[in-house]
Design brief:
heterodimer; A: about 575 residues; Phenylalanyl-tRNA Synthetase, Chain B, domain 3; Phenylalanyl-tRNA Synthetase, Chain B, domain 1; eleven-stranded mixed beta sheet; 15 helices; B: about 500 residues; alpha+beta; Arc Repressor Mutant, subunit A; BirA Bifunctional Protein, domain 2; 3 domains; seven-stranded mixed beta sheet; three-stranded antiparallel beta sheet; about 20% strand; flat; ATP binding (chain B); nucleotide-binding (chain B); ATP-binding (chain B)
Chain lengths: ~575, ~500
């Protein structure tokens, strides 16, 4: 979950509550669902929160939510915006994998060191969350005074151009560099370039943004040094590119609200798309061609919430006035209304920085939070149902009980293992052998650890590992597991044949084949199945002391004395007899 | 007078003038000490002898102590090497002296730690000086160690401060032993003079004794019924399995039916049905285990369409979808389930065992798999307790009431519900409760009411509330385990499984 560093002093200043001490602030933040995780070296709070309210990814957003919580603010706030002077012209050469752009001009910002840090953090956190590590949306913030606009094609003002370029078509000086590089060189020679090279690796052309002077940004990888923002910057150009218009527009709204809270003025930007845009992902929502896109889009959206639904979900009776009050204290606007069938409902306006409201239920949650969920009295639901166990799980339990009665220590091993443990150390070769355990492996794509690369095809290797890890413990060691194993099987829907397996091992100084067979006889009797043990070969067992486990006529497993090579491989210095068979055979 | 055989022997072996130890008596009689102790107490109860207890301390060399008797104390070796290197004349590099001393590994630290303390010289900024007046041959600790090795010294004769040092350095141990001394009383002497006979006793009750009726005339040898018997380990269910059984009992008692289903399943059931957008960060291979198998062959086509529609367009008149890519290819990918909510989806959709009509309660306690970093509280695979309740109208209060009831069965009370966010539930709550032992407030689960975007595509028109919790977490809470790796997996210690208290 995201963690955001927030300066408590900035929080006090932005909320206007200088009297709150750190402890009170932490309490209030917990109430918002922001958990205090610790402090940075500079004394900033590290706050962890669930990734729904992305508008709280900066101190400005957190302060706004606190002011609503304190009751200092009510209802929806929308900043004023000035009319557009700048246009982003989108060229038809733009890569069709990244066809969308948005932007805003922000004037008269007062960026001290702290405010600049906060802005950079917000940018990074938005990249990490909504921006899906810049794949879906990437933010570029530029010093406006360093941009030289071209006369827009409609001659109404300044313009910059979003285009696609070849890897070596042009050069610019990227951030953290002191020489000119082509976009291709940035991806191989620049540290940030290497980090994000994967995103554009399959693009037909590379995204680039030009002003009248030339190339100044290579989204989503890196900005140019010319337009770098510093504490001296007064006016900013914010642009965002991405694979989805809605996503970058919402990211832009969050940034604009944060800068507005710092006293800046937001100025609109026109986005001029080509008439026949091509999108690599054809299912993506299209932008109407020929319509001027004016951004940021700070319009509110509307949802209708039924009064009954609120009362039903919270389990309390509420006055309509109270509901409106709770909605307003959540930063929403609400008026009462009637649905077509005359039922009381609320028409709720949702501010443009909210990205988490997909359904009226999300607003019921807001009402609940404002009301205080912990104020509600728990009640046991008055619905009668009959409990019961699954047949497989009761069979498992019954077998486990019998094994425990026979003196076995019940085990619980991991289902994931590796080829060496599952096959090699048991002398089994899945390509060569056709025996219990030699099933084709179900392997894990891109395993994280070489110890866990596949699902075990049988359970005996796990038992051998437990014996190996317990050679310092007293014998006899009689161990058993009723557990899970799986192998590759093209006849299955999922290509994975799953089964429950019963495995046991008796490690004793005088262990012999009959000890294992005696256990099987006992189980066969307990579960009323007929046991036969015709001789067989198995690479894990000694020839001549190995048998198939045949239950009610079906070959379902193996029993025998473990091969000395397997014992030595597991550092065991005494005989071990073992068995494994399918649980279902006992049904 | 008639007495059992052992008592007669003890009485005859004891003296009225010299106190005899029980050990000596046992040696003399060739009996086990515990047998003799039993007889001694019986005789003392009859007033025939007195027993006096004396606690004795011994001082014994540890293995490390014995090593130093052979090779010399590390600090003495260091001093000798230092003098050899001329450190009694001026500072010498520490590395040089250590090299010359032949000390290695932990012995170096031991030498350095004791060197200055015992006045052999000083160590400063990597250089070492030796006090020319120090006399390693007079080292008090070394002297005592040597004397102990030769058996030339009694515990009481060692200077207290030296002994304390040696104990703190683990060079000696001071085990205590209690010795019982026995003396005949006047009654004992009298009894002996009047004559004491051995009564006829029987060790083992045999079939012959029983059938012949002889058992009526014999006396049974007394056993020391307080002595420890041989250690015996019976079979035992795994502690985590016992906890699972307990959870299942509780849930069945609360009216829940058990679910089951595949471990390897399509992402459709694991994630898409749960309204997790396909570009959600938790759906990368860093969080879940994708399997190297072809895509799932069979998915219910109509359900797939409804789920895709919910992702793209939302549910209901005012619903919005995600602005994320959605393809059936991704939905067909086969993973190890990251949660057993995939089972809930199969049951709620009617694909597990037919359409369900409210009310219903279902649960499972089954394995899930997460590509996490292994540490004391995280495993790559663990058991998830999953439960849900389906009813016409459910409120947050019903959810709270159900969980309060469940956790109380495990001694966890005063639940707190912290509003939370999950893509698949709204409202959502993290559950916190008071640790039954430590009183700490700890997270004990995640819960919520399934979103309409989850339920409507599945064909469910009523409310469903659900919660999840790691079984291992519950076990750690109720049993106070610190490291879950000690419990679950092939690294488990068999003695731990054999000796851990059972769950009930």
């Amino acid at each position: 979950m995201p963690v955001v560093d927030v300066d408590p002093d900035a929080l006090r200043r932005l909320t206007g509550h200088d009297e709150k001490d750190d402890e009170e602030l932490k309490q209030d933040l917990f109430g918002l669902g922001l958990e205090f995780e610790g402090e940075t070296e500079d004394g900033e709070f590290q706050l962890e929160f669930a990734p729904d309210r992305l508008d709280r990814l900066s101190v400005e957003g957190v302060a706004r939510s606190l002011r609503y919580q304190y009751g200092d603010d009510r209802g929806v706030y929308v900043p004023n915006t000035n009319d557009a002077d700048w246009t982003i012209e989108v060229d038809s050469s733009v890569p069709d994998e990244r066809p969308f752009v948005t932007g805003a001009v922000v004037r008269d910002v007062n960026l001290d060191e702290a405010a600049l840090d906060s802005l950079i953090q917000l940018q990074e956190k938005l990249h990490a969350t909504m921006g899906r590590k810049r794949v879906k949306g990437a933010i570029g913030i530029h010093d406006l005074t360093m941009l030289k606009g071209r006369l827009a094609s409609d001659e109404r003002g300044n313009s910059i151009r979003y285009v696609g370029v070849e890897a070596d078509e042009d050069r610019f000086v990227p951030l953290d560099s002191d020489r000119e590089l082509t976009p291709g060189e940035v991806l191989t020679e620049h540290q940030t370039g290497r980090e994000y090279a994967d995103i554009v690796a399959d693009y037909g052309r590379y995204p680039a943004i030009y002003d009248d002077i030339g190339l100044f940004s290579f989204p989503p990888v890196i900005n140019g040094r010319r337009t770098e923002v510093s504490t001296d910057s007064r006016d900013l150009f914010v642009e965002m590119t991405g694979t989805d218009q809605w996503t970058i527009d919402k990211m832009l709204n969050v940034v604009c609200y944060a800068l507005d809270a710092r006293g800046a003025t937001i100025e609109e930007v026109t986005v001029d798309y080509p008439d026949d845009p091509v999108y690599a992902d054809e299912s993506v929502e299209r932008v109407d061609p020929g319509v001027d896109v004016v951004r940021p889009d700070l319009s509110t959206s509307e949802k209708h919430v039924a009064h009954d639904r609120i009362e039903g979900l919270l389990g309390v009776n509420l006055d309509p006035d109270e509901v409106v009050d709770l909605l307003e204290r959540s930063g929403l606007d609400a008026v009462t209304d009637e649905s077509d069938d005359g039922a009381l409902r609320y028409r709720v306006a949702v501010p443009p920085y909210r990205v988490d409201v997909l359904h009226p239920l999300d607003l019921v949650d807001d009402v609940g939070r404002a009301y205080g969920f912990n104020e509600l009295d728990p009640q046991y639901p008055e619905v009668g149902t009959v409990g019961g166990r699954h047949a497989r799980s009761t069979l498992e339990d019954a077998v486990r009980d019998q094994l425990v009665g026979l003196g076995f220590t019940d085990l619980l091993n991991f289902h994931m293992t590796n080829e060496a443990e599952n096959y090699e150390r048991m002398r089994v070769d899945p390509d060569e052998h056709d025996c219990v355990g030699a099933g084709e492996p179900v392997t894990i794509t891109e395993p994280y650890s070489e110890d866990y690369t596949m699902i075990r095809s049988w359970a005996l290797p796990s038992l051998a590992m437990v014996l190996e890890n317990n050679t310092h413990r007293s014998y006899p060691q009689d161990i058993a597991e009723v557990g899970f194993a799986a192998e590759y099987d093209a006849d299955e829907d999922s290509y994975v044949a799953e089964r429950q397996t019963v495995a046991g091992a008796l490690a004793r100084h005088d262990a012999s084949y009959e000890d294992a067979k005696a256990v099987l006889q006992s189980l066969a009797r307990d579960f009323d199945v007929e046991l036969e043990t015709p001789p067989t070969d198995h690479p894990s067992f000694i020839d001549g002391r190995t048998a198939s486990v045949v239950l009610d006529g079906e070959d379902v497993g193996v029993v025998g004395e473990l091969h000395p090579a397997v014992l030595v491989e597991h550092d065991l210095e005494l005989p071990v007899v073992a068995f494994e068979f399918e649980l279902e055979a006992l049904r | 007078m008639q007495l059992p055989g052992t008592q007669v022997s003890v009485l005859e072996a004891a003296s009225a003038t010299d106190a005899t130890s029980v050990t000596a008596l046992a040696d003399e009689l060739g009996e086990k000490p515990e047998t003799v102790v039993g007889a001694v107490f019986e005789l003392a109860d009859s007033g025939l002898l007195t027993v006096e207890e004396r606690t004795e301390e011994r001082v014994e060399l540890t293995d490390e102590g014995e090593t130093y008797v052979e090779s010399g104390l590390p600090e003495v070796r260091l001093y000798r090497a230092a003098v050899e290197a001329g450190a009694d004349d001026g500072a010498v590099s520490m590395g040089q002296v250590i090299g010359a001393s032949g000390l290695e590994g932990g012995a170096v630290d031991i030498a350095l730690a004791n060197y200055a303390r015992k006045g052999y010289g000083s160590i400063e900024s990597g250089e070492l000086t030796a006090d020319p007046d120090a006399d390693p041959d007079a080292d008090g600790e070394a002297t005592v160690l040597a004397a102990l090795a030769d058996g030339r010294v009694d515990a009481g004769d060692i200077e207290a401060s030296v002994r304390e040092q040696l104990v703190s350095r683990d060079l000696v141990t001071v085990p205590e032993s209690t010795e019982r001394l026995v003396t005949l009383t006047d009654e004992g002497v009298t009894a002996l003079m009047e004559g004491v006979e051995e009564s006829e006793t029987v060790g083992q009750l045999t079939p012959e004794l029983l059938t012949s009726g002889e058992w009526q005339d014999v006396e049974f040898t007394e056993y020391n019924v307080e002595a420890d018997a041989e250690t015996r380990y019976g079979g035992k269910k795994h502690i985590l399995r016992q906890t699972a059984d307990r959870v299942k009992d509780v849930l069945v008692g609360m009216g829940f039916q058990e679910m089951e289903g595949p471990h390897a399943d399509a992402e459709f059931w694991i994630n898409d049905c749960l309204f997790m957008p396909q570009d959600h960060p938790a759906r990368t291979h860093w969080d879940q285990f994708a399997l190297d198998v072809p895509p799932m062959q069979d998915l219910p086509a109509e359900l797939v369409d409804r789920v895709e529609d919910a992702h793209r367009n939302g549910v209901g008149a005012d619903g919005d979808g995600y602005h994320s890519p959605w393809t059936e290819d991704v939905a067909r990918g086969v993973d190890l389930r990251g949660h057993t909510t995939s089972l809930s989806m199969r049951y709620l959709s009617g694909h597990a065992q037919g359409e369900l009509e409210p009310p219903q309660r279902y649960f499972s306690v089954e394995k899930v798999y997460r590509n996490d970093t292994l540490d004391a509280t995280h495993l790559l695979e663990f058991f998830q307790i999953e439960g849900w309740v389906m009813a016409e109208d459910l409120s947050v209060r019903d959810l709270m009431g159900t969980f309060t009831e469940f956790y109380e069965q495990f001694g966890i009370t005063d639940l707190q519900f912290k509003p939370h966010y999950n893509p698949y539930t709204e409202p959502s709550f993290e559950l916190f409760g008071e640790h039954p032992e430590t009183g700490e407030i700890v997270e004990i689960g995640n819960s919520g009411i399934f979103r309409e975007e989850v339920l409507r595509p599945l064909g469910v028109d009523c409310d469903v509330m659900a919660w999840g919790l790691a079984l291992e977490r519950l076990l750690m809470l109720t049993h106070g385990f610190e490291d879950i790796r000690d419990v679950h997996g092939t690294l488990v210690d068999l003695d731990f499984l054999r000796t851990e208290e059972v769950v009930h």
